[in-house]
Design brief:
about 250 residues; mainly beta; Immunoglobulin-like; four-stranded antiparallel sheet; 1 helix; 18 strands; about 45% strand; binds 2-acetamido-2-deoxy-beta-D-glucopyranose; disulfide bond
Length: about 250
Amino acid sequence: MASLGQIIFWSIISSIIVLAGAIALIIGFGISGTHSITVTTLTSAGNIGEDGILSCTFEPDIKLSDIVIQWLKEGVTGLVHEFKEGKDDLSDQNEMFRGRTAVFADQVRVGNASLRLKNVRLTDAGTYKCYVLTANGKGNAGLEYKTGAFSIPEMDVDYNASSESFRCEAPRWFPQPTVVWTSQADLRANFSQVSNTSFELNSENVTMKVVSILYNVTINNTYSCMIENDLAKATGDIKVTGGFLHSFCMGLLG
Ligand SMILES: *[C@@H]1O[C@H](CO)[C@@H](O)[C@H](O)[C@H]1NC(C)=O
Ligand SMILES: *[C@@H]1O[C@H](CO)[C@@H](O)[C@H](O)[C@H]1NC(C)=O
Ligand SMILES: *[C@@H]1O[C@H](CO)[C@@H](O)[C@H](O)[C@H]1NC(C)=O
Ligand SMILES: *[C@@H]1O[C@H](CO)[C@@H](O)[C@H](O)[C@H]1NC(C)=O
Ligand SMILES: *[C@@H]1O[C@H](CO)[C@@H](O)[C@H](O)[C@H]1NC(C)=O
Ligand SMILES: *[C@@H]1O[C@H](CO)[C@@H](O)[C@H](O)[C@H]1NC(C)=O
Ligand SMILES: *[C@@H]1O[C@H](CO)[C@@H](O)[C@H](O)[C@H]1NC(C)=O
């Protein structure tokens, strides 16, 4: 037999549950009342001087003429880009983006609202918002865009050094990366005492050339030079077998 106390307790619990359900329902109706659609962004990094993509997708809608895409950047007046009625509308575009933006017009129909940004600048870094309106509703998503420089290293024997040495050189990095050498023969080996890394500012005074020399290498062993900053990571591998040089590059960028 349940005591009166238990009955009151359970009835309070069940009324809380019913109330919660009702509130959830009201909120649910509220949201569907404003017709929200799912918009998804993907974070990526921009390489200064190259073209970048700010990735954004949404629930597709066959009626292209009803789709409005707006790209906004925090702290920037006007728009980064606007696409509506099947074409670009750049009447309210901020001048820092003039001539540098495009959506993939043929991909909009399938839910691709990604923005192509030409000639990425360091100052393009920031918080962007991808806003999409379709006949089904509207939605938006933010994305943090980082900018810098990264490049794949070239590996070679350093013919200038007195001992058998390898050279890892990458033309453009920013911010200053770390360079770590590893050996396939001994994955835990620490080469910080037998390598020397230098950074040389390029003529545009932002990006730097990275050169790292690894001294006293042994034959038949594969060495990797890994360059990394908070935007990207790139690796180059090199091996010498009795006079034959094998260098192969692997890049893992962005
Ligand atoms: C959008 O389309 C462009 C061009 O085809 C493509 O490069 C990009 O990966 C697409 N983005 C998504 C998220 O599908
Ligand atoms: C080779 O070493 C000499 C002496 O240290 C130096 O002056 C020269 O610049 C080096 N050359 C290269 C290509 O690193
Ligand atoms: C390698 O050794 C140096 C000091 O000689 C140290 O600062 C560094 O953290 C070590 N690196 C690794 C990956 O253990
Ligand atoms: C390379 O090896 C030689 C001979 O073992 C040694 O004298 C030299 O100090 C080594 N160089 C470095 C950078 O460790
Ligand atoms: C590293 O390179 C710099 C400049 O080329 C040179 O001054 C320094 O002595 C080198 N350090 C080592 C440990 O070889
Ligand atoms: C780079 O900096 C140097 C020295 O600070 C200066 O003389 C040069 O004009 C700068 N170059 C550019 C492209 O800003
Ligand atoms: C390197 O490998 C080749 C072929 O696998 C072998 O003939 C040679 O003796 C090796 N050299 C060293 C120094 O281990």
